[in-house]
């Protein structure tokens, strides 16, 4: 562990360096005995037992030192606004700041979810219009904005599917088929919704093995849950055929829309047979992604399934916009109606770009991914070396692996060279996987610089450079034992 760069506040503190205190603050926060009577500005004096007998043991330093300390710490944060962020399957793209400004407007920020509908007609109008836009983009007319994020959208859609099956009197249809290249949250969502999971293997081309799919279809099939484009960055070219096979077996097809960024404005899932899907507004539609949220995972469904969507729905009539309950709804899936500011950002993004702009986002994300795929394939092994969508998967060559270099070494070395690592060891169908997603917002110069860095690491790996196994060496924290960190976390500073 390297602790030389930015000492803790207490370490840089020096006795006797207390700042000048403002008189008002002195009066309000004086210790016992320092003032008499009721301090100005306080509703009532605190009892003497609740007052400090001495000042708190805070660091002593000047304001300038304090500002510099936190400024230096902020510069250590890795974000899309500081560097390239090629995290596959996450779409860590730059989002226009103007959409943050729109969402922060007092027009929206001052609203409360319990206000009377007549006082929030603008907000309800925006939600209704966004529902319409998402329906148009997906080709699926039923839309709810309720789910809090992607996995929550998955669960909500599966609850809708279960309600549909129950209405049909088919309680034995409880098996969901999932390709081995799907997102890892899919099986968990199925389990929570009361379904069983069977895995459908991928073929040599990385796409769903149709024959294996057929072998699993039967009277217990509730649906097929596909990520398209997949986590391999490949579009399922036989998706219409897959949908038809599942429908013939009596099931529905769910599409994980986490990778919608690659096809939005180009292809509508409803047109090739998808029955339901979720969208990640925080991935595709302009909410800064990371830090744990907020997110938004609206689901879009066919007309047949729309009557089961969560309550309440935003509807319109001659008198304006209202919340309405559907009689056959699965009920509420959260306390309030959405992460509203995420919805504002998404709506602003869609309207600013227009139909042609949204399509160009998808086209540019595909162009960037393929440009970087070709550049990286000169030094790395790309298992499915053909036209990809928004992302692709690479891995170390056999020569590198024989030299003892693994994906974890590459990821840690990238940190030393100024890059956030791509997604590693996922998807599981590719051994030692490195999943790279450049997104549509990065320039050619940025992609060239990253490709050069990857080429440098490849050269180091071929030469057996010891730095690969020691990296990162330039960060405040060196390489940690990830397995031990999960099983035996030491949540304190400078543990012995």
Quick recap:
The chain has helices at residues 9-12, 23-28, 63-74, 97-103, 106-109, 121-138, 150-167, 185-192, 210-216, 239-248, 281-284, 340-376, 398-402, 407-416, 444-463, 467-470, 482-487; strands at 142-144, 175-179, 196-200, 221-227, 252-257, 276-279, 299-301, 313-317, 320-324, 392-394, 423-424, 434-436. It is α/β, with parallel strands linked by helices. The protein has 3 domains: 9-74, no CATH class; 97-353, Type I PLP-dependent aspartate aminotransferase-like (Major domain) (Aspartate Aminotransferase, domain 2), CATH 3.40.640; 363-487, Aspartate Aminotransferase, domain 1 (Alpha-Beta Complex).
Describe the structure.
The structure is a single chain. The protein is an alpha/beta fold. It has 3 domains: 66 residues, no CATH class; 257 residues, Aspartate Aminotransferase, domain 2; 125 residues, Aspartate Aminotransferase, domain 1 (Alpha-Beta Complex), CATH 3.90.1150. The chain is built from 17 helices and 12 strands. Strand 8 and strand 9 form a beta hairpin. Helix 4 packs antiparallel against helix 12, helix 6 packs parallel to helix 12 and helix 12 crosses helix 15.
Shape: globular
> How large a portion of the residues is in β-strands, by DSSP E?
5-15%
Q: What share of the residues lie within helices?
A: 25-40%
The number of domains is 3
By CATH, the superfamily of the largest domain comes out as Type I PLP-dependent aspartate aminotransferase-like (Major domain)
Q: How many alpha or pi helices?
A: 17
Query: Which ranges are low-confidence, i.e. pLDDT below 50, for 5 or more consecutive residues?
Result: 24-36
Write down the CATH class of the largest domain: Alpha Beta
Strand order of the largest sheet: 1-7-6-5-4-2-3
**Helices and strands, in N-to-C order?**
HHHHHHEHEHEHEHEEHEEEHEHHEEHHH
- Summing up helix and strand content along with how strands pair, one would put the structural category as alpha/beta
CATH topology of the largest domain: Aspartate Aminotransferase, domain 2
Overall residue-averaged pLDDT value: 90
Number of strands: 12
What value does the Rg take, in angstroms? 27 Å
Assign the CATH architecture of the largest domain: 3-Layer(aba) Sandwich
Instruction: Describe the sheet with the most strands.
Output: 7 strands, mixed
């Amino acid at each position: 562990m390297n602790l030389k760069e930015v000492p803790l506040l207490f370490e840089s503190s020096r006795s006797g360096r207390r700042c000048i205190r403002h008189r008002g603050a002195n009066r309000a926060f004086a210790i016992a005995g320092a003032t008499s009577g009721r301090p100005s500005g306080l509703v009532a004096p605190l009892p003497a037992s609740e007052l400090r007998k001495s000042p708190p043991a805070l660091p002593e330093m000047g304001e300038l030192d304090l500002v510099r300390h936190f400024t230096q710490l902020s510069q250590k944060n890795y974000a899309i606004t500081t560097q390239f962020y090629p995290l596959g399957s996450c779409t860590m793209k730059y989002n226009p700041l103007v959409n943050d400004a729109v969402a922060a407007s007092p027009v929206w920020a001052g609203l409360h979810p319990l206000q009377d509908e007549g006082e929030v007609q603008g907000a309800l109008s925006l939600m209704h219009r966004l529902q319409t836009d998402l329906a148009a983009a997906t080709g699926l007319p039923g839309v709810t904005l309720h789910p809090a994020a992607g996995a929550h959208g998955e669960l909500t859609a599966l609850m809708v599917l279960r309600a549909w099956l129950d209405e049909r009197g088919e309680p034995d249809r409880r098996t969901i088929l999932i390709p081995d290249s799907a997102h890892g949250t899919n099986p968990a969502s199925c389990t929570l919704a009361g379904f069983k999971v069977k895995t459908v293997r991928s073929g040599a081309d990385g796409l769903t093995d149709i024959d294996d799919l057929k072998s699993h279809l039967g009277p217990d099939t509730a649906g097929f849950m596909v990520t398209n484009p997949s986590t391999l960055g490949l579009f399922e070219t036989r998706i219409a055929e897959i949908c038809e096979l599942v429908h013939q077996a009596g099931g529905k097809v769910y599409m994980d829309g986490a990778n919608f960024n690659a096809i939005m404005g180009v292809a509508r899932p409803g047109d090739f047979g998808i029955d339901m899907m979720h969208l990640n507004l925080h991935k595709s539609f302009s909410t800064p992604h990371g830090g744990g949220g907020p997110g938004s995972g609206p689901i879009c469904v066919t007309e047949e399934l729309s009557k089961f969507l969560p309550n309440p729905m935003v509807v319109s009539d001659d008198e304006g916009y209202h919340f309405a309950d559907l009689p056959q709804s699965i009920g509420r899936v959260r306390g309030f109606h959405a992460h509203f500011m995420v919805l504002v950002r998404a709506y602003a993004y869609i309207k600013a770009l227009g139909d042609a702009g949204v399509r160009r986002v998808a086209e540019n994300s595909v162009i960037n991914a393929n440009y970087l795929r070709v550049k990286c394939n000169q030094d790395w092994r790309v298992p499915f070396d053909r036209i990809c969508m928004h992302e692709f998967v690479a891995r170390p060559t056999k020569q590198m692996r024989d030299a003892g270099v693994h994906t974890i070494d590459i990821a840690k070395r990238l940190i030393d060279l100024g890059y956030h690592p791509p997604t590693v060891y996922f998807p599981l169908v590719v051994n030692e996987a490195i999943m790279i997603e450049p997104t549509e917002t990065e320039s050619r110069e940025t992609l060239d610089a990253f490709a050069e860095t990857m080429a440098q690491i490849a050269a180091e790996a071929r030469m057996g450079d010891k730095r690969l196994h020691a990296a990162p060496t330039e960060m405040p924290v060196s390489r940690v034992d990830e397995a031990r960190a999960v099983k035996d976390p030491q949540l304190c500073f400078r543990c012995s």
